[in-house]
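Dear colleagues,

As part of the handover before I leave the project, I'm documenting each prediction I ran so the next person doesn't have to rerun anything. This entry is a single chain, and its sequence is reproduced below.
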Amino acid sequence: MAGTTEQDTAWVTGIVREFWASSPENALDGAGGEKAWGEPRLGFARGDDPYFETFKKAIGPFLWTPEEAFALAFPEAPLPAARLTVISYLLPQTPETRADQRRASLYPAARWARSRFFGESFNRSLRLHLAHTLVEAGIPAVAPERLPWFDYRRSRRFGLASNWSERHAAFVAGLGTFGLSDGLITEAGKAVRFGSVVAALDLPPTSRPYPDHQAWCLWYARGTCGACIGRCPAGAITAEGHDKEKCFAYIREVAAPYATAHFGTGDTPCGLCQVAIPCEGRVPSGLTSPCSSP
């Protein structure tokens, strides 16, 4: 495929949305039933955006830049960061799933647990489908989260961290900013999942409609809210931020066993802090602006 940048952007967006619309995997039963996700939204970032190096320095040397992830997939034909685009997308939880989860307080609701299990399985397929479609069109591409070397390490500053961050990629691609709970607040809210592909494409980057990485969180922007603090049954969110150890312990020791026993899904669901908050399904009123970060 070779066209104008506008045509290529529309083509890539169409690949994602068509798979979302047609794949039977996008279902809460993983087999064509009620959809797991609302319509996806996409953002694009240059592979050499300075934020990727900034995050690497802050989180740890194990965090891949787009150039490093691409080189792992194509060691015989690596490309410089300037010739790469990061395609990031978000998948919003459906209104029905959010409504069910809003009523929950200690354990994830059934729809939420199924979206984490079957819905994330679809998300993995979507990453691979997008990368494969690009490769079939003669455009080298890789989904970093699907590489065999993807894993979790320990950041001296932030604790447990993966070597590719879908949330950080989404931030760079203009999709949202971080909140007190570490979740990304997007124009579709915080109740979302992310995926990304690094491709040898020259697409115009999406402008970032925020001045910094916490601009869409009421706690950081105005010193108000903190609703996610009260939503966390593990006490893992405080005025100091998100305690990953407490969060992961609750997920693995309480939420996941509950979901397995009651819904047969397993995986690592919780997400109670993503609903019944002002940023559940949108950016809180008054925090959006036309400015762009550097």
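Residues 289-294 have pLDDT under 50 and may be disordered. Residues 110-136 form the longest helix (27 residues).

All the best with the project,
I.
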